[in-house]
Write a structure and sequence with these properties.
Strand content: 5-15%
Low-confidence stretches: none
Structural class: mainly alpha
Strand order of the largest sheet: 2-1-3-4
Shape: globular
Distance between the termini: 34 Å
Number of strands: 4
Largest sheet: 4 strands, antiparallel
Helix content: 55-70%
Radius of gyration: 26 Å
Number of helices: 29
Amino acid sequence: MGSEIYNTRNVYLRCMAAIYLSAFTSFYVQIRGLYGPNGILPSHATLGIQDKRHFFDKFWENPTLLHLAPVFGLTVSYCMELFALTGILLSFLGLVYQKICNLFIFFTLWLLYLSLYKVGQTFLHFQWDIMLLESGFITIVVAPILFSEKRKTTPRDQLCFWLVKWLLFRLMFASGVVKLTSKCPTWWNLSALTVHYESQCIPAPLAWYLHQSPVWFHKLSVVATYVIEIALPFLFFAPFRKLRLFSCYGQMLLQVMIIASGNYNFFNLLTITFCFSLMDDRHLFGLQNNKKASAMENTVTGITLGLLIYFTVLWFGIDLGKEVPVHSEIQFSAKDFERALKLAVATSIAIGAISFFFTACTSLYDLVFRSRSSLFEYILNVIQYVTYFTVACFLFGISLVPYSTLDPATRTSLPVFLNRWHGQFDQFHLTSSYGLFRSMTGVNGRPEVILEGATELQGPYNEISFKYKPGQIERPCPFIVPYQPRLDWQMWFAALGTYHHNPWLVSLTYRILTNESDVINLLDSNIYNEFEEDWPPKYIKGSLYTYKYTSSSDHSVTDNSWKRTRVSDYLPIFSSEHEPLIKYLENQRILGQPDLTLTNTLLASFLDKVWVICSATEPHIFIWALLVSAFVVTRLS
């Protein structure tokens, strides 16, 4: 019989509600500045509101409930606010009340987030947004149809919860593998972390201190990352609990370190939530403590960990150095890794399939031989099991398509029908490929775009500060998890290219020049004080800078975390009357696009009042206030 996971599954569901709460709230407070009619990328321009086709035809092509905005009598951006607020309310209730965590609630949350994602454009196209959609759909399958007072694991629970484990495996294994397949020199020479802490999008305050660590420690940390991301995930499917739990806490440790050093919104919290799929009630709640590990389990666990240590030392050349405490260097070539990867991908699919069908057979055995329900309940359980087994098979099958992109030979050997199924449902983002930190940017310093404004063409130009990204060198980046300031994040990506590939940046410049308050709210709140009577600027230009962390000695003198050097011009001088600028934004469908007519003024007025209340505090504080409030209500109830 499989392990009891009833309570563990419930913890997972509550955690998913907390993730949704963070995601919806983080997105909600930015809607007006990013997607409003005078926002950076107005959402109505991408929806095709003039399309007169039937709703279901439009929905299948572009699955978003925002097609129904005319039914609500709202503009597209107002409707986005309504959906986000609904998501906040439902996820808050799910976090507070276990009985709310059912299939229907999680289906609604998934559909609402999908609806927002489909019009989110560049500001919403991050791996964790896609990952939330995939895990959100799996959570629909994991969640009970309705809450039951019978506190026991049902036969289909183990099978559905297995899908979370498979998602965690694909995420971690791919994230480790792509670091080496990218052929990024810093990952191959183990120096990536000497760059990472200062070059990541929005470093946390602790990142400066970690950056000061000696090089040998950074290299050893990269080795640990490879072990956790590439080797340990295979232990997810081990038959012994100790090995599964060891791999589980390895993943959690890595995620906690990432949370401490960088602001990656809800991503790491979501990954930690997946780790509950490796636990059971016996471990998480101390149930059935009388069951001790067998001698075989202890022996196999010891041998496995011993082999893991042995091959880590062997493949990464770890030894006690003379010049440094610990020396490490990769001992295999790119060709060696390619051959090993081809075998590993095929093997992992085989292991996954065996584990899946073993779990399915175990659940079926429990249903047939251990069920003590009435005949009517038995028939319902059989129907439910067959239905969920079919859905789980489908999700596992189509997940192999993006996962197998790690090895082209494996991808071409997949059955044709799996590729066809994946293509038919691709617009719903039921599964995706992953691979975080593929290559390291900012090896010679992180590039940053600094916008500067002036009232005269000749200047002087003053820096336009953002809330969270590096700007003025005396200001360190704050800790804002689980909030994601999507404009600040995109500014990091913009610095890696040119403004020609980032039309949203040109739009941002125009909105600042025209003093659009919703966009200005996304910038530093002290911006009016910095410019005083010179706001808004009549002219804006952009410069490219290189930022580096200060050394410990420099920091002790200046107390600055950053030092910077101007590299070149990035953005030409623009003004709000610049005709080529206006023509460019019209061609990009940012200006001059018709919006829906607002007819439901009562609901719009209500949304205005709610937005004023919710935007009165810093977003990350607002999110934590909601999470803490939910925890307090849960404890009191």
